[in-house]
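Practice problem. Given the sequence and the SMILES for nicotinamide-adenine-dinucleotide, write out the predicted structure.
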Amino acid sequence: MNRLAGKVAIVTGGGAGIGEAISKKFAREGAAVVVCGFPEDPVEAVVEEIQKAGGRAVAYTGDISVQEQAEACVKAAVKEFGQLDILINNAGVFPATGTIDKYPVEAFQYMIKNNIYSCFMMTRAAMPELQKTRGNVVSAGSEAGWMGIPENTPYGGTKGFVHAFMKGVAVEQAKEGVRANCVCPGPVDTAWTHKETGPMSAKMEKQTVEGTPMGRRGTPEEIANVYLFLASDEASYVTGALFFADGGVTNSKGPHGAEVPSKLKQEPEGELDLKHEHDGHAEIRKQDQWQHLG
Ligand SMILES: NC(=O)c1ccc[n+]([C@@H]2O[C@H](COP(=O)([O-])OP(=O)(O)OC[C@H]3O[C@@H](n4cnc5c(N)ncnc54)[C@H](O)[C@@H]3O)[C@@H](O)[C@H]2O)c1
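Answer key:
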């Protein structure tokens, strides 16, 4: 507890999935949190739960891929809590899977906007405040930005941008005392990795789990633990890192997960009360329709 005492953090995409876990974890560790999401996202619900548990949080709703709204989010943090120490660029989207010859151009554009513009706009807007506090940025990378995943190539490309961008920011801003890192998860137990609630086909879902040496998805809380370390002063010498939290998947070849006995596939119980029904990005959730184009 209190590993982030006195710190102020923005968590983008903080109302759902991994972002909900990061928001709640950071608040438990003493940070004041700006929980940021689209207006349709359940950010207010997450804020209420944090406050009920005795933590400090406010909601910011807007589209942070838009320059003015990203700047307004940073201003809201400083107005409410007086400073900004940590920016978590967690917001992202995963609208479709399919081979590149069939991949919908609109889905590609949607990812460029929400995975790349949002990370750039928030980092740009937050940097002057992070320089004042000698703060840090942690962004959502992915196994998909590191290795090739069939039928998932444009998503991986957007995460490859995030990896390279954070490394550059790390080198450039070291002289200002600002650190920048990525958490690169493997498959995580949010809406995205289940065929019923995300764009993965049954085959892709099976391969995703069995291709992971640990034979299971990570929990949002397990990923939030890594964000916590990188955002905290314990990581004071860590910058420009791609920190993989992936059950071994980026080092694997073949369906090793299928061989893991079921007793070793038990997820840790965790401490956070997470609302899985909130997972998935708002615009797509509304459409109630995912695209798998084979
Ligand atoms: N789930 C996984 O298996 C996995 C694996 C690797 C990396 N990641 C990364 O982790 C992050 C979170 O994934 P998740 O599964 O928790 O997703 P999620 O859909 O549950 O949560 C993401 C949230 O970000 C919000 N968001 C997206 N664009 C936004 C914008 N422009 N402005 C404001 N809010 C915006 C969405 O509405 C949504 O609420 C993503 O960046 C994703 O690429 C996820």
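Check your answer against the key. The chain has one domain: 8-264+276-292.
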